[in-house]
């Protein structure tokens, strides 16, 4: 892996990820159910948002932000940064511009630098969130009819393991529109302003979003 996923000092390490389309649930009456998860490596805890709209980068970052506001800030009051391990594709893909601009806005709000290390394409199953969170969720609801959003949330939240895994799950009914475009100028501004810093080793996969007291590009003001 590109990063050792440990909580070292005061740097909080997270794995994040979503289920690909084969694991999404689309029903004419129920609608969509898109689970997106945050796995806290040190605490062995999971946080899963079950989205009812589109699986976008905005949804992914909103889940991370909700975890931080509700759990992370209290659990790690001395945190000096977040280290995120993510798949190379999907809503948190390394090529997804909206993912980076939303993370930049989150870094500005929290005052924490957010470092992202993407697993190279084709290696997403190396992500600990697959083995330590989503696999147990799949086993827990195996054979159970997922008849409503409430049933899905309850099934996820009831997931535990002998090692002590606990999972919080909640429904996210926010609308996350698709087709949001981030112009070249906005992406260039992130780097020229020092907000997006690419690492020397495979900077397309490894980078840091730095908080700034200046004008952070607003991902909600898009053309």
In short:
The chain is an alpha/beta fold and about 220 residues long.
Task: Describe what you observe in this structure.
With 223 residues, this protein is an alpha/beta fold. It has a single domain, classed as Nucleotidyltransferase, domain 5. It has five helices and nine strands. It has helices at residues 57-75, 97-110, 128-140, 149-157, 184-192; strands spanning 11-18, 25-27, 31-40, 45-51, 81-86, 114-118, 166-172, 196-198, 206-209. The protein starts with 10 loop residues before the first strand and ends in a 14-residue tail after the last strand.
Write the layout of secondary structure elements.
Layout (H helix, E strand, L loop, with lengths): L10 E8 L6 E3 L3 E10 L4 E7 L5 H19 L5 E6 L10 H14 L3 E5 L9 H13 L8 H9 L8 E7 L11 H9 L3 E3 L7 E4 L14
Parallel strand pairs: 1-5, 4-7, 5-6
Antiparallel strand pairs: 1-3, 2-3, 3-4, 6-9, 8-9
Helix pairs in contact: 1-2
Q: Give the count of helical stretches.
A: 5
Main β-sheet description: 9 strands, mixed
Q: What is the quaternary state of this protein? A: single chain
Could you say what the CATH topology is called?
Nucleotidyltransferase, domain 5
Order of helices and strands: EEEEHEHEHHEHEE
If you compute it from the alpha carbons, what radius of gyration comes out, rounded to the nearest whole angstrom? 17 Å
Helix percentage: 25-40%
Q: What's the level 1 CATH class?
A: Alpha Beta
Total discrete domains:
1
Structural class: alpha/beta
| CATH architecture tag | 2-Layer Sandwich
Q: Label the overall shape.
A: globular
Low-pLDDT windows of residues: 1-9, 20-24, 214-223
Distance between the termini: 37 Å
Question: CATH homologous superfamily?
Answer: Ribonuclease H-like superfamily/Ribonuclease H
Total strand segments: 9
Average pLDDT works out at 85
- The percentage of residues in β strands lies in 15-25%
